[in-house]
């Protein structure tokens, strides 16, 4: 079997058929299996899934009674036969060339372990400006280096667009359940273990946003949960890669930046001081950003400035002053 596509679902009667047909209608000639995992649905989606399974030998229907997308996906993974494993949500639609383009990239590049692609955002029912901005940002990341450099800014891989070699799941684990976003944990864990990501140039998925989506309703996807999780992985990285460990400087002296940087303290990281663009915030612990020069500054900088577009401005400024990303600084927002 070349590829297994796993779709967990819960009360997805309005969207499941489109999602399933978008996989069955792929422009791919290899053997594939579509594994649908019902996760305690109370609407008609399980009956619909059973009907669809009866119509196609490529579909396998399973039930997972422990509630949660992690348990449902891992149930599917436990029976998957594919060389490659693809992830998708029950309310999304795969574009016709998704599987063929991702399989082609993995087949031709043995050094690539996992692959993603651009997605088309479709917001419904709600004010979706923040999610649309996230999709546009993630779409601009072109390759592994982009994904790696931006891993602590935000989740750099849109989860339902992911395909990976089975061996990656076997070596570094699948999604884990906890008080954190399971998709971000998986990507950070894989990256920290040296997993190499590729990205196809094409759009691979229509990513549909709604007010009932877990990323909007579950506390595990709140902003602080993301910061707590990435702080853990950041602290581990700093321990082995920063010449100044455990000390850091924080770019951003505002209340929000300080609050998020404080997650570092529980991991043994010490904050030496702050850097800011406003002189009225200066003091014994705060430097004015224009005074920064590589040759006279001793420390590692973490930028927690979260205003839209400002992270990239911080990056450009530090690079222009002779600082090197990864060696001297990282973006955290």
Structural write-up:
The structure is a single chain. The two termini are 40 Å apart. The chain has twelve helices and 13 strands. The strands form two sheets. Strands 3-2-1-4-7-6-8-5 form an eight-stranded mixed sheet, with helices on both faces. Strands 11-10-9-12-13 form a five-stranded parallel sheet, with helices on both faces. It has two domains: 3-221, Spore Coat Polysaccharide Biosynthesis Protein SpsA, Chain A; 223-331, NAD(P)-binding Rossmann-like Domain (Rossmann fold). α8 (182-192) packs parallel to α10 (223-241). The protein is an alpha/beta fold and 333 residues long. The chain is elongated, with a radius of gyration of 22 Å. Helices cover 35% and strands 22% of the residues.
Brief characterization of the structure:
By secondary structure, the chain is an alpha/beta fold.
User: What is the strand tally?
Assistant: 13
On the 0 to 100 scale, the average pLDDT is 94
- Uncertain segments: none
The CATH topology of the largest domain is what? Answer: Spore Coat Polysaccharide Biosynthesis Protein SpsA, Chain A
Principal-axis shape: elongated
Largest sheet, described in full?
A: 8 strands, mixed
Number of continuous helical runs:
12
Q: How would you write the strand order of the largest sheet? A: 3-2-1-4-7-6-8-5
Q: Which second-level CATH architecture of the largest domain applies?
A: Alpha-Beta Complex
CATH classification class of the largest domain: Alpha Beta
CA-to-CA gap between the ends?
Answer: 40 Å
Structural class, please?
Answer: alpha/beta
CATH superfamily label of the largest domain: Spore Coat Polysaccharide Biosynthesis Protein SpsA, Chain A
Instruction: Give the helices and strands as they follow along the chain.
Output: EHEHEHEEHEHHEHHEHHEHEEEHE
Share of helix among residues? 25-40%
Task: Give the amount of beta strand, in percent.
Answer: 15-25%
Pfam family, one: Glycos_transf_2
GO molecular function: glycosyltransferase activity
Family: Belongs to the glycosyltransferase 2 family.
Protein name: Glycosyltransferase involved in cell wall biosynthesis
């Amino acid at each position: 079997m070349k590829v297994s596509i796993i779709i967990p679902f819960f009360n997805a009667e309005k969207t499941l058929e489109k999602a399933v047909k978008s996989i069955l209608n792929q422009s791919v000639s290899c053997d594939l299996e579509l594994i649908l995992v019902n996760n305690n649905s109370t609407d008609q989606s399980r009956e619909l899934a059973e009907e669809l399974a009866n119509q196609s030998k490529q579909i396998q229907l399973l039930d997972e009674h422990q509630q949660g997308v992690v348990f449902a996906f891992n149930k599917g993974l436990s029976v998957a036969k594919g060389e490659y494993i693809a992830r998708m949500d029950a309310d999304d639609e795969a574009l016709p060339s998704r599987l063929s383009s991702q399989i082609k990239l993995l087949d031709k590049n043995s050094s690539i372990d996992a692959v993603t692609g651009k997605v088309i955002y479709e917001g419904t029912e709600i004010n979706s400006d923040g999610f649309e901005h996230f999709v546009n940002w993630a779409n601009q990341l072109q390759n592994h280096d982009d994904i790696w450099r931006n891993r602590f800014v935000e989740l750099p891989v849109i989860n339902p667009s992911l395909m990976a070699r089975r061996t990656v799941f076997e070596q570094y684990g699948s999604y884990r359940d906890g008080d954190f976003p399971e998709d971000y944990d998986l990507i950070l864990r894989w990256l920290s273990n040296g997993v190499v990501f590729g990205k196809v140039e094409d759009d691979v998925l229509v990513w549909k946003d709604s007010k009932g989506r877990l990323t909007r309703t579950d506390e595990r996807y709140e902003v602080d949960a993301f910061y707590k999780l990435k702080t853990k992985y950041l602290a581990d990285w700093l321990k082995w890669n920063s010449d100044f460990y455990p000390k850091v400087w924080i770019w951003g002296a505002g209340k929000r930046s300080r609050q998020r940087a404080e997650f570092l303290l529980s991991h043994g990281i010490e904050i030496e001081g702050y850097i800011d663009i406003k002189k009225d915030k200066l003091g014994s612990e705060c430097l004015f950003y224009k005074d920064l020069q590589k040759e006279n500054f001793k420390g590692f900088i973490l930028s927690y400035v979260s205003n839209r577009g400002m992270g990239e401005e911080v990056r450009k400024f530090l690079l222009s002053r002779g600082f090197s990303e990864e060696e001297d600084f990282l973006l955290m927002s």
